[in-house]
Amino acid sequence: MKNWLTLEPDRVKLMNKHYTKGRGGNKVECVVVHHNAGVLSIDQIWQVWQTRAASAHYQVQSDGVIGQLVWDRDTAWHAANQYTNQRSIGIEVSNSAGPNAGWPITDTAIREAGRLIAAVCLYYGLGRPVSGDNVRYHREFTSTTCPYHLAPGGKYNAALIGEAQRFYDELKAKKNGTTTGRHAKKTPAGGSSVMLTAKYFTDFIKGFFGPQIDALQDVWTQLRGPSGGGWPQLGKNKAGQNLTLVDAVAALRHDVADLTRKIDNLGGK
Ligand SMILES: [Zn+2]
């Protein structure tokens, strides 16, 4: 980064699609960590996202160079659900080799990603980075293994969160014009454990079921008609109300049963 305190990236290569302007009035509440599942430069991930409806705010290359692809003020499409996307900064970290090598990441990329997490937390007043609180992982929000080794339990998680916390303290001291050392406030270590908060679960449920809840509403409307008032094209019941799809199916079943009985009777004779 050119400037950690102002979040000025090394490079800016903005997406021209596959993101949403603004954040729908929401504030940044956390970062969401990803790995590329690929060995990609800033230009290459930009190219990938031209053909896939996806994006993130930052790409951390294996050499530690950080690119901005979506402005922080806009919504990147990285967490698979709008609720989380509108409230987070998406950080992608390149791998340095493929699946046969186990998706490794360079120490440099882990360090710079950790520092970026710290800088984002400081800039948006999110507090010291805490895994599972203001530092979240793609796999929390959808069915994916991403960010794999960077996630809790993964071999890089402790290094990532450790550097994020160390650098946060350093950067905060710099911002406040003090030095780390005897004046630095001691904060507890061990941030790699996931802190389970009520918010964690709320976000998880909303993130996981958000799209499905919308889909259920659609299904309900299809079954019951707009506002549950039935569909005029299905006919009316004896009270003169529009039939719902459920009513119509029930009526059809009745008709079919009648018909079957008549056919059975004919056959019996
Ligand atoms: Zn991801």
UniProtKB/TrEMBL annotation:
The N-acetylmuramoyl-L-alanine amidase domain, residue ranges: 16-156
Assigned EC number: 3.5.1.28
Keyword Cell wall biogenesis/degradation (UniProt): yes
Pfam families membership: Amidase_2 (PF01510)
Gene Ontology terms for molecular function: N-acetylmuramoyl-L-alanine amidase activity
Broad EC category: hydrolase
SMART domains: Ami_2
UniProt keyword annotation of Ion transport present: no
GO terms for biological process, alphabetical: cell wall organization; peptidoglycan catabolic process; peptidoglycan turnover
Top-level division of the source organism's lineage: Bacteria
Reactions the enzyme catalyzes: Hydrolyzes the link between N-acetylmuramoyl residues and L-amino acid residues in certain cell-wall glycopeptides
Name recorded for this polypeptide: N-acetylmuramoyl-L-alanine amidase
SUPFAM superfamilies (alphabetical): N-acetylmuramoyl-L-alanine amidase-like
Cited Gene3D superfamilies: Peptidoglycan recognition protein-like
InterPro entries with a match to the protein in the record: Amidase/PGRP_sf, Amidase_domain, NAMLAA_amidase_2
Native organism: Corynebacterium lujinxingii
Keywords: Cell wall biogenesis/degradation, Hydrolase
